[in-house]
Amino acid sequence: MLKSTPLIAAAITLMTAPAFAQDWTGFYGGAQIGFANVDASPGGDDDGVIGGIVGGYDYDLGNNWVIGAGLDYDFADITIGTTDVEEIFRLKARGGYKVGNGLIYGTTGYAWADTNNAGDDNGYFIGAGYEHLVSANFSVGGEVLYHEFDNFGSTGSDLEATTVQIRGTFRF
Q1: CA–CA separation, 144 vs 162, rounded Å?
Q2: What highest taxon heads this organism's lineage (predicted)?
Q3: Whole-prediction pTM value?
Q4: What is the spatial distance between Cα 72 and Cα 30, in angstroms, rounded to a whole number?
Q5: Which distant-in-sequence residues (6+ apart) come within 8 Å of 68 by Cβ?
Q6: CATH number for the domain running over 27-171
Q7: pLDDT tens digits, one per residue of 75-92
Q8: 33/161 Cα distance (integer angstroms)
Q9: Which residues in the chain come in under a pLDDT of 50?
Q10: What whole-number distance in Å separates Cα of residue 130 and Cα of residue 144?
Q11: Residue ranges of the domains in the chain?
């Protein structure tokens, strides 16, 4: 029979104990990059790279739930016919559940998109994501969002966009 020694017990404790506190409360800022598919109805569709900066504030409720608000600004170069989608801005609310050092969350909010020749317009988005604390001050994650803009720029076309992005954020 194998005897437990203090050295073995200490090693097991070190392997199972979290290396940092799992408190999500605070401000964050970072960058994201990914893929977007934009569909104009009528008008066609296209896809391409999208990326930009993120920032916000999360509040850890202390019972495995986290709520927060944030801003995203993304650049894009997605062409539908003769129109280029050039930038997207989001004002978001999110709420999620902590799983270990991770956060599974849902998000929704206001979206604004700008194009080269059809103007700009307001819409909304809804989505979900996962973010993982790799240290007390840095997290990585991924997010999928569905956007909708009805009668974009009074052109008669409805725009729908789906984005898939990865991000890294510094938390302070």
Answers
A1: 7
A2: Bacteria
A3: 0.85
A4: 10
A5: 24, 56, 57, 58, 59, 93, 94, 95
A6: 2.40.160.20
A7: 998 998 888 999 999 999
A8: 15
A9: 13-19
A10: 9
A11: 27-171
